[in-house]
């Protein structure tokens, strides 16, 4: 998809400075705290982008498949995985209509993709379709009503992919298929406008007592 293709070349720059690397760490901590991973699990990374979480899952010994709608993002993901000698399969595929059989994966993970999905509860059903019985589905997304979502909807990001984003609150995501909902959490309490020195675990912990997180995750079990 062109809008994501255009941002592919500089997408990973975000992870190279102190701020971006800290954001990635706390989001990863939350995701992997909720998603119970075992070596050898067959996991689908939906909206994999440049392969950030696909590679993290491969590092844990999982058999990983990544899907995304951007060919340019997928090209970068393949190069990164190849350089690290990880055997990850990547496909151009829309998460609303996955080309996999029912009950294919042990778990499905989707990080920072559901901001751009029409009818998220219906899309969740598609992820649940391809996971095995007792399998897990984890969705992580920028939180609505947070300092981070307000920044991404500001004029500063008017000409980026975030102009297409719709941000979801924790209460909204918890209402999706609530009978299969197992757990949830939030993180990234540090404001995006804070100084670089404030992006640390001590500040994150202190702010968690007084403000909403900028990133949320929810876990469902089939």
If classified by CATH, what would the architecture be?
A: 3-Layer(aba) Sandwich
| Percent helix | 25-40%
At the first level of CATH, the class is: Alpha Beta
Secondary-structure element pattern, one letter each = HHEHEHEEHEHHEHE
Spell out the CATH superfamily.
Answer: Vaccinia Virus protein VP39
- Please list the strands of the largest sheet in the order they lie side by side: 3-2-1-4-5-7-6
Uncertain segments: none
How much beta, percentage-wise?
15-25%
Number of helices: 8
The domain count comes to: 1
Largest sheet composition: 7 strands, mixed
Overall 3D geometry? globular
Distance between the terminal alpha carbons, to the nearest Å? 30 Å
CATH topology: Rossmann fold
Q: What is the CA-based Rg, rounded?
A: 17 Å
Counting helices, strands and paired strands, the structural category is alpha/beta
Number of strands: 7
Mean pLDDT: 92
What report would you give on this structure?
The longest helix is centred in the N-terminal third of the chain and has 17 residues, at 18-34. Helix 3 (52-59) links the parallel strand 1 (42-46) and strand 2. Helix content is 32%, strand content 22%. The chain has a single domain (2-221), classed as Rossmann fold (3-Layer(aba) Sandwich), CATH 3.40.50. It has helices at 2-5, 18-34, 52-59, 71-83, 120-130, 147-152, 170-174, 201-207, and strands at 42-46, 63-68, 89-92, 105-111, 131-142, 181-187, 215-221. It is built from eight helices and seven strands, in the order ααβαβαββαβααβαβ. The chain is α/β, with parallel strands linked by helices. It is globular. The mean pLDDT is 92. The protein has a seven-stranded mixed β-sheet with strand order 3-2-1-4-5-7-6.
């Amino acid at each position: 998809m062109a809008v994501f293709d255009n941002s592919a070349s500089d997408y990973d720059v975000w992870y190279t400075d102190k701020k971006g690397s800290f954001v990635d760490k706390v989001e990863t901590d939350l995701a992997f705290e909720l998603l119970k991973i075992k070596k050898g699990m067959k996991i689908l990374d939906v909206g994999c982008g440049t392969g950030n979480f696909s590679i993290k899952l491969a590092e844990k010994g999982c058999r990983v498949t990544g899907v995304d709608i951007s060919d340019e993002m997928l090209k970068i993901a393949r190069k990164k995985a190849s350089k690290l000698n990880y055997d990850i399969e990547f496909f151009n595929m829309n998460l609303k209509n996955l080309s996999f059989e029912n009950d294919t994966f042990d778990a499905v993970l989707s990080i920072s993709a559901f901001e751009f999905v029409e009818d998220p509860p219906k899309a969740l059903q598609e992820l649940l379709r391809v996971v095995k019985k007792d399998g897990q589905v984890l969705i992580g997304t920028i939180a609505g009503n947070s300092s981070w979502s307000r920044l991404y909807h500001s004029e500063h990001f008017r000409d980026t992919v975030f102009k297409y984003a719709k941000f979801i609150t924790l209460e909204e995501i918890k209402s999706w298929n609530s009978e299969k909902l197992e757990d949830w959490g939030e993180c990234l309490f540090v404001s995006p406008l804070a100084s670089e020195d404030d992006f640390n675990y001590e500040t994150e912990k202190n702010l968690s007592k007084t403000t909403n997180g900028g990133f949320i995750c929810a876990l469902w079990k089939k």
